[in-house]
Amino acid sequence: MISLQNHFYKTLSEAIESITEDNHEEVIIDLNGETFHEQVTINKPHVTLKNGTVEYDLGAYEILSDGIKRGTFRTYTLFIDADHVKLDNVNVINSNGHHEGQAIALMIDGNDFVAENSLISSYQDTIFLAPLPEKEYEAGGFRGPLEDRKRIMRNAWFENCTVEGSVDFIFGGGLGVFHNCEIRSRNIDAEINGYVCAPSTPENEKYGFIFNECDFTSEKDMDDSVYLARPWRHYGKCFILNSKIGSHIKKEGYHDWNKPDSHETCEFKEYNTGEDLNLRVSWLKEVNKEDLKYISSLNKEDKK
């Protein structure tokens, strides 16, 4: 039960629905440590969700009543569909497991999103940050609420969070900053246990996913089996700096997703991680002063 604005709601979705469309003041929804088993869309701005768990268990391989596969972008547990939304001490979990394909926990298509002290958990495709690429690889590949939308660059900030998954578990085209987070790879008992991120950054954007002062960890028995990134689209961008890299990460670090022509176009960069960058792929790009200046200019407070 949720108490909000002197009313009580049985579901989180009902509480969100009660907020006015043109809301301009912060509305705090305190989950009081409870777990809500529902697929939730936050489509009202200036909402803060805190102190609880939102969990659901949809997988991409499920065949629906119309005979069509659910697909990736209808599996989300929590969909952020508004600006200025914040999670504080919230667990967002897609508990579908790793045998049912893609299973998004958190899907973001709003600006100035912030998550603090939170757990975002699934296996494949844990977090998606819009925009989508302009074109899918196969018909119906983007089926879901984002399919026909204008592609708008989004930004998100994750602070003191744990993000866990397996294959491409942080993906999309937006600007996502992960600061002081644990980025935890999960074991799927495969020769390649996954890829941490799969950016599809638009060509005209300078930065995509940024990991600063993060700890890349894993479950047991995963040595030398995970790549840090691979380009979902040719201009994907990922910058890892001032971070700890666990033994589960392969020495070459990055994969080209069998797109050798992406070596020139994608921008994967790494700085001050203590790793021997001579063992990384030859197409790893160099960090410059402009990169470091940009990172130092980023401020979570600007997102609030």
Write the layout of secondary structure elements.
Elements: E1 2-4, E2 7-9, H1 12-17, E3 27-30, E4 35-37, E5 40-42, E6 47-56, E7 78-80, E8 86-94, E9 106-108, E10 113-116, E11 119-121, E12 127-129, E13 155-159, E14 162-165, E15 167-172, E16 175-179, E17 182-185, E18 194-199, E19 209-212, E20 215-218, E21 226-229, E22 237-241, E23 244-245, H2 262-265, E24 267-271, H3 289-297
Parallel strand pairs: 3-6, 4-6, 5-7, 6-8, 7-9, 8-10, 8-11, 9-12, 10-13, 11-14, 12-15, 13-16, 14-17, 15-18, 16-19, 17-20, 18-21, 19-22, 20-23, 22-24
Antiparallel strand pairs: 1-2
Quick structural summary:
By secondary structure, the protein is mostly beta strands. 6% of the residues lie in helices and 35% in strands. It has 3 helices and 24 strands.
Describe this entry's structure for a reader.
The chain has 304 residues and is mainly β. The chain folds into 2 domains: 1-144, Pectate Lyase C-like (3 Solenoid), CATH 2.160.20; 166-304, Single-stranded right-handed beta-helix, Pectin lyase-like (Pectate Lyase C-like). It contains 3 helices and 24 strands. It has helices at 12-17, 262-265, 289-297, and strands at 2-4, 7-9, 27-30, 35-37, 40-42, 47-56, 78-80, 86-94, 106-108, 113-116, 119-121, 127-129, 155-159, 162-165, 167-172, 175-179, 182-185, 194-199, 209-212, 215-218, 226-229, 237-241, 244-245, 267-271. The strands form 3 sheets. The chain has a 15-stranded parallel sheet that branches. It has a 7-stranded parallel sheet with strand order 5-7-9-12-15-18-21. The chain has a two-stranded antiparallel sheet with strand order 1-2.
